[in-house]
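Shall we go through a protein fold together, starting from nothing but its sequence? Please make up or recall a protein chain and show it to me in full. Go ahead whenever you are ready, and we will take it from there.
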Amino acid sequence: MNHEEFLPLLEVTREDGGRLVLPTGNPAAARIDRGQLLAQIIAVAAPPGDGKSVKSVHAAFPREARPDSPVYLDLEAIHEGRPVGLRRATVWQDQTGGPVVAATASILLDEADDGLDEADDGLDYQRDWPPDGTPEQAAAAFFAVVPGEARLASATGLHDDRALPAEFSFWIRCPGIDGDVNSRALVAYVSDWPLIGTLLKAVPGVSERDAHLTLETAVLTHSVWFHQPVNASGWLRLEVQGRRLAGGRGYGTGEVYSRAGELVASFAQESVIRRPRGAAHPEPLIETGRNQ
């Protein structure tokens, strides 16, 4: 994918009755990526010139959305204050048997301060910094979900089926993605992808390649927090950690850093990761964080 394919996904239209219709993307795909729905929700909730930006989005995905029928978005303003606003989004489709909800989301909007008072001077802190390294030192990589350039900062990618630490880091740069709104949408879009594969790094004999094949996988919930404006046309480093995998459910987190090391966004995801019912599995799907 490139930016010329990504940006049209954010161009939401209206039917004659005013109902919002989301672009579906590739009509031949088996399902619409949850990250695509997240990006579209962000783009609609606080478009350029709105005065507020998306501070955080918290989404649940009870069903898959399919590209073979229209996808609709209902967006409701729950609260409208001067510094903070709250929106509620519902993404749904008409399928056999009636309307089916594919996603729901709560979106917190925030109006940035014009400036800091003297009393607030120095209130700028972050706990963690990314590991040393630059994108120029990282190996060039191709990730289908990244509409731009990618470089692998980790020693291995997501297709290695050895038992390795459930960690994954990579750089992205998307020069065609201009503006803070599109950059936030891009971060949400990419952040949906690597968490399941990162959890699977710790399980011997499987990898991201087994998703939807020998393993049943799906995103249940996904949250993104934005800490400051985002510039996706410059280098961003994503650090992803698989935290827990047990009982057919996975949980992982991630951080997004600017090239200068500023933490610009964080994300977390709950997922389904399990073998098909009745399948034999010699190794338990459990990630404890202690991998040899």
Q: What stands out?
A: The first strand starts at residue 13 and ends at 14.
